[in-house]
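Morning, I've got a small favour to ask if you have a moment. It would help a lot if you went through both lines with me. Thanks so much in advance, here it is.

***
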Amino acid sequence: MNSIEPLISVIVAAYNCRDTISKCLESLSSLDHPGYEVIVVDDGSTDGTVELCKTFSGVEVIRLDRGGPSRARNTGVRKARGKLVAFTDSDCFVDSHWLKELEKGFIGPDVAGVGGDQVSPADESEMGKRIQEFLKISGFVTRYIQTEAAFGETTHNASCNSAYRKIIFEEIGGFDEAQFPGEDLELDIKILRKGYRLIYNPAAVVGHYRPGTYREFCRMMRMYGAGEWHLVRKHGFFRLPDFEPFVVAAGLVSLFALLVVYPLTWFLLLLPWPVLSLWFFLRTGSLGRTIRFILFFLIVLTNWNWGFFTGSWYRPVK
């Protein structure tokens, strides 16, 4: 970081993240880039996060009352001096070439945003590494983690690893401060519907810590499901996962009705699992990992749908 006019403003929304924010800020202070600034927007932490952030020189810290990560990021953008605004999360750390790789994606004036890849940190928990691997394998459906290996256009970049032209970010109204989670997905929906493009560059890498327990993973999936419900209410059905809860519900109702009439058809409940197991086995090459991924799949299927169908009155809070 230096005092020249920044080309990029890096914004980190923080909340009670004392255990991970140091590694995040250390990585940001070591970026190989000629001009950038770092703005941490604290969302009402109570664990000493603010005091810790202030020990890092060159980091601007803004403190807010609790209001959610969307408001925190929007506040950071209003303070930003760069023409590009980049985002990462407080539980992430970035590669030294991260900003340069994000910049490479702005290949034309119609490119509004660029994102990159997420990997497991070396010191990640075993549970976190397993979740990361599962999310990567299933990413072709969810788009939560990109699966492409090549530079090119995309429909969504996660807010833990993305950058946008500030002028376009402001034009579309930034993050919806009433939306969480899924605020980054909605931002990209608005960008694409305005006719702008999004680019994915796998060389722009962040390490991202994942939930360390099954309970935390279940909670995360319920939150994502609830966030998706609110997006569907606002924007209609816009991607494949939006149809899945209704397909599953219709299938279960139909199957239950069939079982009432023809009880011996119970074996139909078993049909999807050999196919799914074979698919996971072909991707992993391991029976143990296949069994584990079936468990993760069940966690996602039940908890994401639970969050989706209760999303009309269940409002997740980070």
User: Anything to note?
Assistant: The longest strand covers residues 197-208. The longest helix spans residues 287-309.
